[in-house]
Amino acid sequence: MRWMILCLALLAGSAQAELTYQLEPRQIAEDVWLVEGSTDNFGRDNGGFILNTGFIVTEYGVLVIDSGPSKRFGEALRAAIARVTDKPPILLILTHHHPDHALGNQAFSDVPIAALEGTRRLLAEQGEAMAENMYRLVGDWMRGTEVRLPTQTLEAGELDIGERRLRLLALSGHSGADLAIFDERSGVLFAGDLLFHQRALTTPGTPGLDVWLEDLARLQALPWQQIVPGHGPITRDAAPFVQMRDYLGWLDQVMRSGAERGAEMNELIRTPIPERFATISLSRYELIRSVSHLYPRYEHSVLQRIDQ
Amino acid sequence: MDWRGLLCLALFAWGWEARAAEQSDPVSSVMWDYYHQRLLDSAAFTFDKRVQVLVPPFAEDARQVPIQIDARSLGARVKRLLVWAELNPIAQVVDFQPGEQVLPFLALRIRVEQATPIRAAVLTEDGLWHVGSARVDAAGGGCTAPSVVRAEAGWEERFGQVLGRRFRLEDSDRLRLQVAHPMDNGLVGGIPEFFIEQAELRDASGQRLASLELFPSVSENPTLSFELREAQGAELWLRDNNGNEFQAAF
Ligand SMILES: [Zn+2]
């Protein structure tokens, strides 16, 4: 019996030592690559690999978009890039400061890390707490992970890397500072978390669902050929925009009408999820979170001063 | 049957009886006996699903966890409603005494320090406590997190302001309100306890409709919802432990 326990312990030990992210870059356009994550929640089974990262190979080197949830992920991403090109990374761009997108920065400390000013500020403010939370959620995958702040500030406009021109959009609807990257040559739009597809959107830092809807309109107006959402499958059609607008509108309406009839948070989080959102993963979970983040604002807008 | 067989049987029977007498706790909390003794004076009780305790499955913001108690399906006159969070450093939440005109309903937000059972014990006129239970998961730290209110510019000017409104529901009027108050619980950064500890709902002529004792596990800028049986005028009176009084009219 004792040897069996010992065996099990040894097995568990070796499994523990082998936490590896299976990153398989997929070419989605000439010189444009995608590393696609699952649409699950953070977990010990996925190490936080629930997001889409990507990279563009230019004549000068590789431009990387988002570094992922951990140091280990960042390293795996570099290794994956090296498997498809011998050009080195020359720049890491962060779409926003959320932990699943920006905690792999350590693996890119030898190249400039660029982001919006707001992203730098938010990562400085919230990075430690978010990293702590990630340790709690995914465990050992995070080992050695520390917050690394961006070293360069990006602004809206054009960014030329050799022949390649990227259009940068400084938006805010998802996290307060969201960068969308449009590659003019391939027509690929890296939308960051302004777009979720088949995965419920998250709202912890949104300035408001109305702002988010305006951002979507600006993104959709770009001459994109292909869309890479922050989470969920990529498309060549407008499906993620349609789904986002529908979902944001529903979320807004649930809270707006709730506030007007005097609903409590506990009543709203039990709102039936419409059938048409059945394919979207984690919608109940994210509804509970969004009501916590946003309902107080909706409540405030219908309450009046009644003190005497 | 030898003596061992008899002993076995006796033990079995004893165990059976003990199990039948002891009600099974729907949230299997090790703290139940302690609070049963401390807050309910070990009085007669029953775990009762008709005392509905609504909480989210997890605390997205451990400083503002919404809880909602509804005991109207007991169909009995409720004298007192006690709420507590079993694993909180400050366990007690409220002691609510609704009068005839006020429904046994209450919604508010609390701080939780870790995952905890939430209880609502409702005393009916026959002297029996009906206990509703729920569990909320939490990463924690809600009781020891620094104040959000105190970090806001100009909070002193808003101090004591009451936002509120009356909502007509199917069979009742819901009164919802939020009071600007830091509700310091004495656990954060050396700031002493400073919290609203008493509230009364009164009718237009000043008669008491319900009274409420609050504990500093209630969130800062507390939100409260009551329900009245009928559409009648109501006023709310509040007092904090420093003697500040606030008044609002619905
Ligand atoms: Zn995000």
UniProtKB/TrEMBL annotation, chain A:
InterPro entries: Metallo-B-lactamas, NDM-1-like, RibonucZ/Hydroxyglut_hydro, SoxH-rel_PQQ_1. GO terms for molecular function: hydrolase activity. CDD domains: metallo-hydrolase-like_MBL-fold. GO terms for biological process: antibiotic catabolic process. Residues 50-231 form the Metallo-beta-lactamase domain. It holds the Pfam family Lactamase_B. The keyword Nucleotide-binding does not apply. Residues 1-17 form the signal peptide. Keywords: Hydrolase, Signal. It comes from the Bacteria. SUPFAM superfamilies: Metallo-hydrolase/oxidoreductase. PANTHER family: ACYL-COENZYME A THIOESTERASE MBLAC2, METALLO-BETA-LACTAMASE DOMAIN-CONTAINING. Belongs to the metallo-beta-lactamase superfamily. Class-B beta-lactamase family. NCBIfam families: SoxH_rel_PQQ_1. This is Quinoprotein relay system zinc metallohydrolase 1. The lineage of its organism: Bacteria, Pseudomonadati, Pseudomonadota, Gammaproteobacteria, Pseudomonadales.
Automatic annotation (TrEMBL), chain B:
SUPFAM superfamilies: E set domains. Residues 174-248 form the Sulphur oxidation protein SoxZ domain. InterPro entries: Fuse-rel_SoxYZ (IPR030831), Ig-like_fold (IPR013783), Ig_E-set (IPR014756), SoxY (IPR032711), SoxY_sf (IPR038162), SoxZ_dom (IPR014880). It holds the Pfam family SoxY. Residues 40-143 form the Ig-like SoxY domain. This is Quinoprotein dehydrogenase-associated SoxYZ-like carrier.
